[in-house]
Amino acid sequence: QVQLVESGGGLVQAGDSLRLTCTASPRSFSPYLMGWFRQTPGKEREFVAGINSSGGGTRYVDSVKGRFTISRDNAKNTVYLQMNSLKSEDTAVYYCAADRAPRFTPTQGMDVSSIDYWGQGTQVTVSS
After folding, report:
1. How far is CA 69 from its chain centroid?
2. Is the dihedral of CA 2, 117, 77, 103 positive or negative?
């Protein structure tokens, strides 16, 4: 069993930056694909960014490419999402996710239905 705890959300203005942090315990998450998803009321949870077990491969949804960066520190069991140039449409609850799949899916990278562990979510609100 892996527990994921997110932190770093908050209220910011458009154009600002935030860094989300997700820490896993008690077991090492180094074998897992790690990712961030987000969800707004009435909509499905959507993939935002993913990183493979070594940290050498990443995937992003088109809407955040060039603005968001995912990274991981396996020694600290931590994954980060650096969000720059935030827009009002980035407002959502952001969820950390762990997937035991050996590689990204050929489509978006990570699929909601295959996630093994979820964090509790952290709210990001961007005012325009």
Report:
1. 10
2. positive
pLDDT in tens, the chain (128 residues): 889 999 999 999 999 999 999 999 877 888 899 999 999 999 999 999 999 999 999 999 999 999 999 999 999 999 999 999 999 999 999 999 999 988 898 888 999 999 999 999 999 999 99
Bridge partners, residue 35, by sequence? 50, 97
The single-letter code of the amino acid at 123 is Q
Measured CA to CA in angstroms, residue 52 lies from 3, 16, 74, 75, 126 at distances of 18, 27, 11, 15, 28
- Contact, 62 vs 47, CB < 8 A? no
